[in-house]
């Protein structure tokens, strides 16, 4: 039992975290078809204004701020409302200007359309 | 035979210890977080939805994160001194897509909670906004806070 204090062990993120408020990692589903990547994230409590999606150098970051208010006088608490943050590496060839984000009932859907170079292509075999 | 039983017990002791430590992880990050006030035994990862209960004086307010659910997917029942929340959250993979990662899980849930005081069922409202369920319960007349006037003698 050399080092039992697991909680005190320091763990640094790869890059300094920009936002001030503490965040949690939301669960995310990632789907793909021939035309696009589709990300689905659970971000309950976040509204449209609180969503910040950025694509930079192949890094997709999703920040969703909670905007719901709760009374200040808790009787019992099982969770703590927090903002959400998640980063993904995405392949080159995603058109950042065509990213489409929809938020319904606390579920964020991000459509990342592939550019032509990333789309599957059928290669014609010519007879030699 | 006895030693085996003690191994068995040790395993559970270890699991208890792990759970105690996990409950305290947040205290190192943020000392203001005192951990969940509810009994941690009743709070496994499978508990859905997590519920926070507030007392605003004349009302009890109950909040729960129910991402992806709309008002018609949640049933709220008042029964005596308790409240139950039930429903089903489906996660349907979109047609024609292949899945790389699936972290969101479907869940069929039913939770019952005991309320700290009696409420007026007629004045209960429940709303779902941005995937957050809010139930406002008005305390019954006898549970309402009452100001007692102090008189001079």
> Could you name the ranges of chain B where pLDDT drops below 50 across 5 or more consecutive residues?
38-42
Q: Number of helical runs of chain B?
A: 1
Structural class of chain B: alpha+beta
Structural class of chain A: mainly beta
CATH domain class name of the domain at 22-67 and 81-113 in chain A: Mainly Beta
Note the quaternary state here: heterodimer
Q: What share of the residues of chain A lie within helices?
A: under 10%
Order of neighbouring strands in the sheet with most strands of chain A = 1-7-5-4
Largest sheet of chain B: 4 strands, antiparallel
Q: What is the tally of helical segments of chain A?
A: 0
Radius of gyration of chain B, in angstroms, nearest whole number: 21 Å
Total number of strands of chain B? 8
User: Over all CA atoms, what is the radius of gyration of chain A?
Assistant: 20 Å
Q: Sketch the major β-sheet of chain A.
A: 4 strands, mixed
Order of helices and strands of chain B: HEEEEEEEE
- Average per-residue pLDDT of chain A, rounded, comes to 84
Low-confidence spans of chain A: none
Q: Strand-residue fraction of chain B? A: 35-45%
What portion of the residues of chain A fall into strands of 2 or more residues?
Answer: 35-45%
Descriptive tags:
A: 128 residues, mainly beta, four-stranded mixed sheet, 43% strand, B: 153 residues, alpha+beta, three-stranded antiparallel sheet, 1 helix, 38% strand, flat
Descriptive notes:
The complex is a heterodimer of chains A (128) and B (153). Chain A has 128 residues and is mostly beta strands. Chain A has strands spanning 23-24, 28-32, 36-42, 46-56, 59-66, 74-76, 83-89, 100-104, 107-113. The termini of chain A are far apart. The model of chain A has no long low-confidence stretch (mean pLDDT 84). Helix content of chain B is 18%, strand content 38%. Chain B contains 1 helix and 8 strands. In chain B, the strands form 2 sheets. In chain B, strands 1-2-8-7 form a 4-stranded antiparallel sheet, with no helix packed on it. Chain B has a 3-stranded antiparallel sheet with strand order 3-4-6, with no helix packed on it. In chain B, strand 3 (74-79) and strand 4 (82-89) form a beta hairpin. Chain B is flat, with a radius of gyration of 21 Å. The termini of chain B are far apart. Strand 2 of chain A pairs antiparallel with strand 5 of chain B.
